[in-house]
Amino acid sequence: MTVERDRWQDEERFWLDGPAFYRDTMAEDAVMVLPKPAGILNRPDILEIIQNAPRWDSVSFEDEIAMKHGSAFVLAYEAVAQRGDDTYRALCSSTYCEADAGWQLIAHNQVPVY
């Protein structure tokens, strides 16, 4: 597999998987900027929220851009997530960094599309 394909698979898992994946794949100093009421979160806050948050049934990505720069990899895309009859669309970006433990998410941002 390529680094890019692996990061897209990780990105999908962040939408669909639970707390264990977050703990294993998110950097210790990771941050997320999510729509309110969540807001700006650090790793402990993210792990607390994901513990009880319902997961998405499916997600697809549109208008994908991927870029590797040194030890960083950036993904930008529009997400279309489904949970039952609910659909959520957001413009997103995620930054991964290559570390001793492998590739880890260091930053994620979502801007809802209405």
UniProtKB/TrEMBL annotation:
Residues 19-105 form the DUF4440 domain. It holds the Pfam family DUF4440. InterPro entries: DUF4440, NTF2-like_dom_sf. This is DUF4440 domain-containing protein. It comes from Donghicola mangrovi.
